[in-house]
Amino acid sequence: MATRASPARRALSQNGSCSLQPGGAAHKGWQGFPPSFPLSRTAALGGVGRCRPAPGQAGGAVTCARCRAVRRHRGPGRPRERSWAGMGCAALLWGAILLACSCGPGPPRVGAAPLLAATYVLDDANGLGREFDGIGAVSGGGATSRLLVNYPEPYRSEILDYLFKPNFGASLHILKVEIGGDAQSTDGTEPSHMHYENDENYFRGYEWWLMKEAKKRNPKIKLIGLPWAFPGWIGKGENWPYDYPDITAYYIVSWILGAKQYHDLDIDYIGIWNERAFSSKYIKLLRYTLDKHGLEQVRIIASDRLWEPISFVMMIDSELHGVVDVIGAHYPGTKTVKNALLTGKKLWSSEDYSTFNNDVGAGCWARILNQNYVNGNMTATIAWNLVASYYEELPFGRCALMTAQEPWSGHYKVESPIWITAHTTQFTQPGWSYLQVDGHLEGGGSFVALTDGLGNLTIIIETMSHNHSKCIRPPLPNFSVVPQSATFYLRGSFSMVQTLQVWHSRLDFESGNSSLFQQLHPLRVWRGRFSLDLDVDEVYTLTTLKTGWKCGYPEPPPPQPFPSIYSDDFNIRNPPFSEAPNFADQTGVFEYFVNASDAGDHVFTLRQVVVQRPITWVSDADQTISVIGNFKWVNMTVTCDIYIEKPRDGGVFIAGRVDNGGIYVRDSKGVFFWVFADGTYRVTSDLAGKEILMKGLAGVRDNVWHTLTLNIQGNSASGLLNGYPLWENVTISKPGNGWAALGTRSFEFAQFDNFHIEAC
């Protein structure tokens, strides 16, 4: 576990705020420059609000201070500036010029070709564009927040603050969560609130907790629920949720009602079936069932796949058109289709990004946050995923806004996409409106402008280059971006704006010294006009709002590998979550269980509880499995008490060097030690149990506790039953490393206790 935090740090985390000290005075001369004098030559005077430990300060206390005017060269590609001493003559010259002419181009850059220059008009006199619905992220699809809940304080609260706290970090407007369906949904399974038809439990999993934590920080955040999979009973044996649409609608509405009844959470939007077929009959019945239960305020998003065929069907089916509120498309490549526009509905990129969270990922995110509206009229963009809190070797490792995958150490990392998000989220709110502008910059890149209708204006500009903004999907057509000068004219209700706050990021792919979300000197708007020099791979936010802050906590503990010696006896009477720490279910669901029939040492156990194959989203394994540990482990000894509940053909296993999970779980290889209720055992090199390395009689029975031990050293493995050797000297060729695991032969009840690993 992580080391105990200092009292000062604990106090900071509890307060959830940062202390901001007044900063140094700005230089008094530059505001008099005309607007044509480029902002990048005059306003790059340092930043405000990066909250960090004061130098030499003990206890991790945090202070924030406005940075003084930066008088040094800011590095290649950073906003260009001149020393104030060197500007003296230029200032006198400009003063003389101003007497003769109140506007005109800025002084030429010595030895440089003139920048491509263009002008853009921002005017609300003829009305506004579409209403802005927000920026958000997905938890789930699946099990992407699995390890977050196990973080010790204060680190867990710090992570949540970076994600949800307004004017702090990402400041997200929307949280979309998976409605758990007991099936694999990318990086693991999430438990259903109804494993069985007569079963309801609204405390399973961690999405309820996450939604409450988000609401605690931002009461205005919008909540969305979407199923990836469904429990098997809904399909009555078929892998299809629409044969009995009334049952499926009841199941989904129960989740919404449970959110309110047990957690006081109001769900704002509900989806249909992630990236799978939709049923018009089901969508209509879902709307009817929502209204019947007094949930008229819950809006329907369809179909969380592609623009078509949902848009076309809505055009020819007026009843369907009437019940769908938002058309949500995934990974649209910033483009929409004609039919979607013709519906007149809100258009969202309801899942996007899904890219490794380095600076290229940040470039991808910056580009699509603007261009989803500029090119596609999409008024909300939702990232998959919220936080990389799953083992990195699972599919799409670190494809999230930030990284928190080590609860055992407390280490986490605030990645650059967090600060790219802040450029939009800290200076807009759902309910604002886009201005009617083309949004394309002449030299490449884009801009959007939004207003609250009360005189406030926010402009976000991005100049991401092609190779530095590739998302994982879809393929990105070639384009070019060049340094350029942009002049903006403010008209209509914005003509009286005199000052804009300026926030700037530059992704530096040469030196790796990116500058993220730094506040520059406020920009003086001169007679409704201002200009900027824009370099490549930059983001600017220009806004009338003064509420933005770049805040932060002291550095978290350093990264550490998963403990090489680890034990869990599952002895907890009232667990805060249904799943044991650090176990990542890949097929099936493993929950804390109170074994009331056992008066001995196994009252509190871990139980696999899915007994029917779910309606799957991907091709789940035929066996259940939960992995744990360090993927790099080579040599290990795994010991666990096991209890087979299914007579005759039931079975369980423990395993080591497991090399796969997530959507590839069916192909998992490793060393699997199985025992079965018929008294036999088997050693296999695969989860499917087809590659048999050894087999024989073990004398194991169902409904009796037994202890299994698997020892893997180098190229050899051996197994013990109840402390006695059962098999040995089995040659292992591959894989060479992987997780430890436990699981069952089929979808069946089974229990596990006193799990212990020693590994290296």
UniProtKB/TrEMBL annotation:
Region named Disordered: 1-26
Molecular functions per Gene Ontology: galactosylceramidase activity
EC category: hydrolase
Reactions performed catalytically: a D-galactosylceramide + H2O = an N-acyl-sphingoid base + D-galactose; beta-D-galactosyl-(1<->1)-sphing-4-enine + H2O = sphing-4-enine + D-galactose
Keyword Disulfide bond on entry: yes
EC assignment: 3.2.1.46
Keywords from the named record: Disulfide bond, Glycoprotein, Glycosidase, Hydrolase, Lipid degradation, Lipid metabolism, Lysosome, Signal, Sphingolipid metabolism
One GO term (biological process): galactosylceramide catabolic process
Catalytic-site annotation from UniProt: E275, E351
Compartments (UniProt record): Lysosome
Location of the Glycosyl hydrolase family 59 C-terminal lectin domain: 585-759
Xref: InterPro entries: Aldolase_TIM, GH, GH59_C, GH59_cat, Glyco_hydro_59, Glyco_hydro_59_dom
Domain Glycosyl hydrolase family 59 central: 434-548
Domain Glycosyl hydrolase family 59 catalytic intervals: 132-426
GO terms for cellular component: lysosome; membrane
Family to which this protein belongs: Belongs to the glycosyl hydrolase 59 family.
Protein name per its UniProtKB record: Galactocerebrosidase
Organism of this sequence: Zonotrichia albicollis (White-throated sparrow)
